[in-house]
Amino acid sequence: MFGTYKPLWGKKPRFKSSYDAVIIGGGLHGLATAYFLARDFGMTDVAVIEKRFIGFGGAGRNTAIVRANQRTQENVPFYRKALDLWPVLTRELDFNLMFYNCGNLNLVHSEAAINAARMNIATAQFCGVESHLIDARQCKEMMPALNISEDITYPIFGAMYHPPGGIVRHDAVVWALAKGAAARGVHIHQQTAATGIGVENGKIISVDTEHGKINTPRVLLSAGGYTAALAYRLLRIQLPISVLTIQAMVTQPLKPLLNHVISSGAYHVYANQTLKGEIATGAHMDPWPNYTTQTTAHYIKHQAEALAELLPCLRGVKFMRHWAGLADMTPDMAPIMDGNDHVDGFYLDCGWGYFGFKSCTAVGKYMARFMASEKCPPILKPFNLRRFEQHRLMGETAAVVNYSANN
Ligand SMILES: Cc1cc2nc3c(=O)[nH]c(=O)nc-3n(C[C@H](O)[C@H](O)[C@H](O)COP(=O)(O)OP(=O)(O)OC[C@H]3O[C@@H](n4cnc5c(N)ncnc54)[C@H](O)[C@@H]3O)c2cc1C
Question: What is the pTM of this model?
Fold first, then answer.
C-alpha cells in the first residue's frame, strides 16, 4: 500500500571496494564535508560510512542553537562563516532548514562577568560580528517573561546580545545535507561501522568496515563523541579529548513567549522556543567523562528549578521528553581540524563539545577544501592538533565558564 520505502537521499547505494575518499561518521560534519567535496571540487566518488543511521549522534540530539560570538580571534571568524552559510544552504539544498535568527541573549550575573563579556563583544565587533552589551532593564524590554528581580539566586546584571544568532532545525540539516550529497553522487552507507584503517609506508590505503574493505587514499574521521576512542583504536593516535554527556529536554508546546535564545552560565541553563512552541532547554555537561546517553533526575530537577527562577511563567509546565548525547571536549574548548600530520591522507575533525551544530556548515566547506587540495586553508590552521603539545591553547574555555552555560 505504501510502496517501496525510499529515503530522501535516494535508494541504497552499491557498496564499492574503492572510493576516492571515505568519511567515517554520518553526522553533521561528515555529511557537510561530503556535500562540499562534491559541490566545490567535483569529488563525488566519496563514501560516508555510518555505524547506525545518519543523525544518530549529536546531529539529531542537539538543541539547535547557532551563533558566532565565540571568544577568540581564531574562532569568531570561523563561526561567522558558518552562520552566513545557513541561508545559502537553505536555498541551494532546496530544503526548509527553518533558520530563525531570533538573536541570542547570554545573561551575565556579576560585575566580573560583565567585564569578561566586554572583551568578548570587542573581539566579535573587531571581527565584524554584531554583539552588544545590554543592561537588565533592556533584557526585560526584549523578553518580558524574564525575571530581573534582585531577589533570585543569581540576579541578572545584563546580557551579551548577539542579534544574528538563533536556531536552525537540526534534523532538517541532516536530511538536507544527505539529500544534497547523494544527489551529487556521494554514497551514504548506513549500518556500516568502520572497524580498521589500513596504512602503508605512512599513507592511508584502506578502511575496514563491517561489510568489507574499502581501498582509499583519503579518510576523514568525524565520528563526534566516538572519534577519540576510534583514533586510538584504529591508528593509535591519542587525542586530548574528554567525552562527556550533555542532557536536554523539551516542555509541552506553549504559545510564543521566548523570542530569543537565552543562556546563563551561573544557572547552567539555556533555552529557546522551537517553532512548534516547546521550550527546548539544555544543561551543563555531566561532570565525569563517560559514554552513556542516559538522562538523570538530577538534571531534570536542576533545569526545572533554574527555569522557574529565570522565567517564572514556566512554573507548572511539563517536560515532555528528555534525552542525552555525547560531547567530545578538548582542554581549550576549541575543536581539532587537522590532516596529513600523523599519516598522509588522514584527516581529523573532532573536539566540538557543544559547538558542533553551529559550526557544521563551515567545517564542511573548509575540511572539503583541505581534503581536495591537500593544503590546510588558513582559517583552519590555528585548530591543529599540535597546539596541545606546543602549549598554544586557545582561550575559548573562558567563553563558556563566564557567561554562556553551554550554547
Ligand atoms: C544535548 C546536546 C545539545 C547540543 N546542543 C548544541 C547546540 O545547541 N548547538 C551546537 O552548536 N551544538 C550542540 N551540541 C553539539 C553538537 O550536537 C555536536 O557537536 C555535533 O553533533 C557534532 O557533529 P559531528 O558530525 O562531529 O558528530 P555526530 O553528529 O555525533 O556524528 C558522528 C557519527 O559518527 C558515527 N560513528 C561513530 N562511530 C562510528 C564508526 N566506528 N563507524 C562509522 N560511524 C561511526 C555515529 O553513529 C554518529 O552518527 C549539542 C550536543 C548535545 C548532545
Answer: 0.96
